[in-house]
Amino acid sequence: MPEVENKADIKENDQQARPEWGSKWEFMFTCVAYAVGLGNVWRFPYLAYKNGGGAFLIPYTVMLLFVGMPLFYMEIAFGQYASLSPVSIWKCSPIFKGLGMALVYIEGSIALYYSVIIAYIMHFLFASMRSEVPWANCDNDWNTEYCLVNHTGVLNNETAYTPSQEYFYNEVLNITDGIDNIGGIQPKLVAALAGVWLITFLVLLKGVGSLGKVVYFVAIFPYFMLTALLVNTLMLEGGVDGIIYLFTPKWDYLLKVQVWRDAAVQIFYSLGCCAGGLITMSSFNNFNNNIRRDALLIPIINGATSVYAACVIFAALGFMAAENNARIEDIAEQGPGLVFVVYPEAISKMPLPSLWAILFFFMMSILGFGSQFSHVETVISSIIDEFPGVLRASAARTIIFRAIISAAYFLAALFMVTGAGMYILNLVDASVGGLPLVIVGIVECIALQWVYGSRNFSENIEDMIGIKPALYWRLCWKFISPVVLIFVLIMSLVQYVPIYYEMPLAEGGTYYYPDWCIALEWIIVAIPILSIIGTFLYTYCRKGGFQALQEASKSAWDWGPEKERNIFLTTSEEPPLYRCKSELSFVGTEINLNDLQSGNTNYSYQWNDIEEVPTGKSKENSVLSKPTWN
């Protein structure tokens, strides 16, 4: 057996072969870029508007304090201590390796559809580079007779559409009437998608070595753009009214369970918890990096950015409402529609629309890439860490592998740039961005704080930063966070609504997915769950659990008819010896009553096959034979 020193040397050599961040700032800016993404711009503003305006900040803050920040701290501490990616890191408790696979599955799925959203952004970015933005009027080939520039309403008993709606759905997406009608591939989106994956590959060419140099710009630049956009919209009529509308609290919403659930899910989605990215990014840290500082600063920066981005969006909505003499609640849309329909329409009515469109979509592309780089690096690093001897054998081999992953992702994403692509994207987003994250969070808390042990985990943190985590963190990890997540899980199941997609061009403004898509949604949800359960059972059986189950399934020593069982009820001081009566047997090992009762024997015997050795017989002649059929 190798000595401990040899094992340590092997571990040290393995760590030396693994890249690290150039400085603590590279890690911090990467986490900021990873957490501050497109969801801060379109998901949080809509949720705040939908769930009580300013009142939503209360459940959002509570969930940030008791779920988001604790899980963020737990994951970056876990990754930094082991310097391994989400799958390999479960050497601490191999039975939970399936949890690592679930993390990579979720992160990989997000990377797939995220690249398509960035492709939409790139399409808008290049389309904005002209004297007039193409969604400013109704005089284009993709417009219909129902296109109206200045207002929405009813025209000839039909719903009227804005130029931005028709541009996005008819020109960019060329959307079909449903997911059953796949339609054709959109060449412009294919070109944009290819550009997205080329940029991703080039930035991740050398892993964190090249990523660390890019994140300074990726993490900081969007704040300059957000500020410029906010100042511009506040100077327009209705801009301030939009922000006032956003933060006007509706206190009765705090009594709705759905509001608290939405706050918890948004925290997960925004911070990137339980998706593997935080474990991967922190695994490249210096062992003594101050993770406690990072666990406090980064979630607060992320939350503040969400609020700041909401101000930018709703200032524009207020301006647009004033321009169209409409109510803000009649203008706001959910998800991508907020970024690709509502905000572009507001930009088209601003002075210098092309300039502001270029700045806005360039900012959105930076936000998207900032998160996408970490999504993809998580998947790549997880595979490389599983097969380091093959994939780290040379720099060329690692680069080729990264190119293969990027190409495979590009090909897989082509389904999402068809006429039915938005339906597919929405299906994947809704499936992996909800229940799987919550379930993974619950299992992660159980695995690290109850199985691996809260004390062990706290000591690991002390080894890194010299201080054990405070009682607040330990209570959240072990009790508060998992309880809150279980509550969110239960409410998600109780309040489950079959997947749908809000789209103005659909009948009634909403597209409802067919039954087979509902089944597919649950299959996508089940895959990470089954990976956890399946790997758990496989490891349990492989480590002797199956043999233990077999032993536990054998008949008890006193199993049999009562009249025959009575022969074992003896009061003799010395336990009698027994032997097998069967002719179909061979001589085995002698056994006494105590051993037979306790099951302390390698053989199992039937009652009618055993007889007591007559008194006075010598020990040498007292044997118990094993039947050949046992």
In words, what does this structure look like?
The protein is mainly alpha-helical. Helix content is 63%, strand content 4%. The protein has 23 helices and nine strands. It has helices at 4-17, 24-35, 38-50, 57-82, 97-127, 163-172, 187-203, 208-234, 239-247, 257-271, 277-282, 291-324, 336-348, 353-386, 388-391, 395-413, 421-432, 435-451, 454-465, 471-494, 515-553, 562-565, 593-598, and strands spanning 154-155, 158-159, 500-502, 510-512, 577-580, 585-586, 591-592, 610-612, 626-627. A three-stranded antiparallel beta sheet has the order 7-5-8. It has a two-stranded antiparallel sheet with strand order 1-2. β1 and β2 form a beta hairpin. α5 (97-127) runs antiparallel to α14 (353-386) and α18 runs antiparallel to α20 (471-494). The protein is globular, with a radius of gyration of 31 Å.
Distance between the termini: 36 Å
Question: How does the overall form come out from the CA principal axes?
Answer: globular
Give me the side-by-side strand order of the main sheet. Answer: 7-5-8
Alpha-beta content class: mainly alpha
What are the low-pLDDT stretches, counting only 5+ consecutive residues below 50? 1-16, 152-156, 581-591, 601-608, 615-630
Measured as a percent range, the helix fraction is 55-70%
Mean pLDDT: 84
Question: In total, how many beta strands?
Answer: 9
How many helices in DSSP terms? 23
Q: The biggest beta sheet, please?
A: 3 strands, antiparallel
Strand residues, percent = under 5%
| Rg calculated over all Cα atoms | 31 Å
